[in-house]
């Protein structure tokens, strides 16, 4: 276990933003993770958990407490059952499952971050979510001061949400269990229209696993969503805003605003959600509100490849990014009456 003081946090995040940590601990075993968390809790010391740093916006003042970077390793495959240590690099784990001929997470290739973060956010992309394959999550319960195992149902997954996200100060994920599918080298049914079109197949059809992964990586790279230190379009936290899910009355009011602003022939993206609600596209809203790719003149700008990514062009501060995020959020609200919600976790700052 390594320990540093007044340690820079920006290099630990994909945004390359944020001030220093008073104390930074890197844990390589579950016991070290639990020991560090328990000591901080009993000592009343503020604690920040960091994995791959792909979903964090840390304030310029840094973090006045202990930052725990989880660097545990472990990839255990038993038939179609997979167990990942929280610190495993997610995109590497996906590649290994494809190499093993197992389907279920191949369309989540290229997503930066660690395996332990995936259940917290219920990570999803291109028609797949981890909630469909996770069987259990082993976590340290800070309230009970014991290690617990939560079933899929107990994780309370929903769109980009979970029990862990709802109660962020209670659980520290240690290991994640998945049940994948042996489909004789074939992918899971391709659900996402863009992926299906790119592969030249119909939605619901299967393709070779490796081909599905490669196509997703190609699509993500085209949107600046595969990390590249030389490409500032990838210096982001991925999608900065979640796709809004609207109640029936909200959706009708939203449609009226769209037709007033863009004309009665305009039809925003609409996808059925639970309880009669409708999910629409944050990227569509941002673009139609006037915030197009590359928007901005300062050190923080919208990606030139994807309107959902707010990027550090190399010399930004966190406050630069937040100023841009507020401008986009407020502009969408003014144009369409819809409130965008940030997807990354805010540390010491707020929109």
TrEMBL record:
<keyword id="KW-0521">NADP</keyword>
<comment type="similarity">
    <text>Belongs to the MurB family.</text>
</comment>
<dbReference type="InterPro" id="IPR011601">
    <property type="entry name" value="MurB_C"/>
</dbReference>
<keyword id="KW-0131">Cell cycle</keyword>
<dbReference type="GO" id="GO:0051301">
    <property type="term" value="P:cell division"/>
</dbReference>
<dbReference type="InterPro" id="IPR036318">
    <property type="entry name" value="FAD-bd_PCMH-like_sf"/>
</dbReference>
<dbReference type="GO" id="GO:0009252">
    <property type="term" value="P:peptidoglycan biosynthetic process"/>
</dbReference>
<dbReference type="GO" id="GO:0008762">
    <property type="term" value="F:UDP-N-acetylmuramate dehydrogenase activity"/>
</dbReference>
<dbReference type="GO" id="GO:0008360">
    <property type="term" value="P:regulation of cell shape"/>
</dbReference>
<dbReference type="Pfam" id="PF01565">
    <property type="entry name" value="FAD_binding_4"/>
</dbReference>
<protein>
    <recommendedName>
        <fullName>UDP-N-acetylenolpyruvoylglucosamine reductase</fullName>
        <ecNumber>1.3.1.98</ecNumber>
    </recommendedName>
</protein>
<dbReference type="InterPro" id="IPR016169">
    <property type="entry name" value="FAD-bd_PCMH_sub2"/>
</dbReference>
<comment type="function">
    <text>Cell wall formation.</text>
</comment>
<keyword id="KW-0274">FAD</keyword>
<feature type="active site" description="Proton donor">
    <location>
        <position position="239"/>
    </location>
</feature>
<keyword id="KW-0573">Peptidoglycan synthesis</keyword>
<feature type="active site">
    <location>
        <position position="343"/>
    </location>
</feature>
<keyword id="KW-0961">Cell wall biogenesis/degradation</keyword>
<dbReference type="GO" id="GO:0071555">
    <property type="term" value="P:cell wall organization"/>
</dbReference>
<keyword id="KW-0132">Cell division</keyword>
<feature type="active site">
    <location>
        <position position="160"/>
    </location>
</feature>
<dbReference type="Pfam" id="PF02873">
    <property type="entry name" value="MurB_C"/>
</dbReference>
<keyword id="KW-0963">Cytoplasm</keyword>
<dbReference type="InterPro" id="IPR006094">
    <property type="entry name" value="Oxid_FAD_bind_N"/>
</dbReference>
<dbReference type="InterPro" id="IPR016166">
    <property type="entry name" value="FAD-bd_PCMH"/>
</dbReference>
<keyword id="KW-0560">Oxidoreductase</keyword>
<dbReference type="InterPro" id="IPR016167">
    <property type="entry name" value="FAD-bd_PCMH_sub1"/>
</dbReference>
<keyword id="KW-0285">Flavoprotein</keyword>
<feature type="domain" description="FAD-binding PCMH-type">
    <location>
        <begin position="17"/>
        <end position="183"/>
    </location>
</feature>
<dbReference type="GO" id="GO:0071949">
    <property type="term" value="F:FAD binding"/>
</dbReference>
<dbReference type="InterPro" id="IPR003170">
    <property type="entry name" value="MurB"/>
</dbReference>
<comment type="pathway">
    <text>Cell wall biogenesis; peptidoglycan biosynthesis.</text>
</comment>
<dbReference type="GO" id="GO:0005829">
    <property type="term" value="C:cytosol"/>
</dbReference>
<dbReference type="InterPro" id="IPR036635">
    <property type="entry name" value="MurB_C_sf"/>
</dbReference>
<keyword id="KW-0133">Cell shape</keyword>
